Amino acid sequence: MKGWEFTTTNVPLKIVEKPDPVATEGRVVIDVKAAGLCHSDVGALRDEKWLDIIEYTPIIMGHEVAGVISEVGEGVTDYQVGDRVGVCPVSKVGMGPGYGYDGGYADKVSAPAVDLVPIPDNVSFAQAAAGTDAGMTSYHAMFRRGEAKPGMKVGIIGIGGLGQIAARAAVVKGMDVYAVDLSPKARELAREIGVKEVYENVTDLAEVAPELIVDYAGFGTTTADALDVVAQGGKVVLVGMGKLESTINTDSLILKRADLLGSVGGDGDDIAEVYKLFASGDIDPVLTKITFDEIGEGLGRLERHEISGRLVAIMD
């Protein structure tokens, strides 16, 4: 099989040939049809701290994987050859694809059967790949950590690959959604999604005082400003890792009796819920599609912030 291999930070990925994986006990082999590209992969290429969570190198990157099962290992009873599946990047049995085993920037992947999520017939492989991480992470932060409920006033910071999915899901589920993004294109996308109001700065949310604010940007000031404008007794959920250190106003946190929570990843249940929203047509995420051979340059485009929505490589 061919794959884009990571060796260490500040070294570009390279295409390599490796033996095809086999379906060992409890695992399946998937013919990859689509693989999402993620900013965390850019982080691994630039920041050596990521080496702490990559179990071995060299390794093929790619943790947003969707495809068709081509081989089933011993003990696997819930899936069969020909099934369309996504792979949960947060594994139940260790690190996930691209971190604990060769990932989706390849023709084939061997994945644990317990991490698979069936793809509905009317969900594309590109959508399914984006749903495994961007969908899972955004949904988990909004509805599991944030506990968003119908009728709540919800602020969303950052209408990118994650924020757009969360915003639309919240609109569909009956929340009053207010979006914040510096980008005019992102603000226009938020309007198309159906949010009640769009702002350029987090501080503009003061007139709304949302009960819940989910920060998908995480640039330090965004989180601090969110605490300043969230409602009394409200909740701020931090997802984005735009900056890994931040200074917040503790008086807002204390005097408002606000909750500040972190959220990372999710699980297969989150992915399944996102797939339902895709299948119903309630969410149609903005995707930029590239080919397998363009993955290396695609990561560069991500790093330069040239991508609208979520970037997905199609493996045909």
TrEMBL record:
<dbReference type="Pfam" id="PF08240">
    <property type="entry name" value="ADH_N"/>
</dbReference>
<comment type="similarity">
    <text>Belongs to the zinc-containing alcohol dehydrogenase family.</text>
</comment>
<feature type="domain" description="Enoyl reductase (ER)">
    <location>
        <begin position="8"/>
        <end position="313"/>
    </location>
</feature>
<protein>
    <recommendedName>
        <fullName>Alcohol dehydrogenase</fullName>
        <ecNumber>1.1.1.1</ecNumber>
    </recommendedName>
</protein>
<dbReference type="InterPro" id="IPR036291">
    <property type="entry name" value="NAD(P)-bd_dom_sf"/>
</dbReference>
<dbReference type="Pfam" id="PF00107">
    <property type="entry name" value="ADH_zinc_N"/>
</dbReference>
<keyword id="KW-0862">Zinc</keyword>
<keyword id="KW-0479">Metal-binding</keyword>
<dbReference type="InterPro" id="IPR020843">
    <property type="entry name" value="ER"/>
</dbReference>
<dbReference type="InterPro" id="IPR013154">
    <property type="entry name" value="ADH-like_N"/>
</dbReference>
<dbReference type="InterPro" id="IPR013149">
    <property type="entry name" value="ADH-like_C"/>
</dbReference>
<dbReference type="GO" id="GO:0008270">
    <property type="term" value="F:zinc ion binding"/>
</dbReference>
<keyword id="KW-0560">Oxidoreductase</keyword>
<dbReference type="InterPro" id="IPR002328">
    <property type="entry name" value="ADH_Zn_CS"/>
</dbReference>
<dbReference type="GO" id="GO:0005737">
    <property type="term" value="C:cytoplasm"/>
</dbReference>
<dbReference type="GO" id="GO:0004022">
    <property type="term" value="F:alcohol dehydrogenase (NAD+) activity"/>
</dbReference>
<dbReference type="InterPro" id="IPR011032">
    <property type="entry name" value="GroES-like_sf"/>
</dbReference>
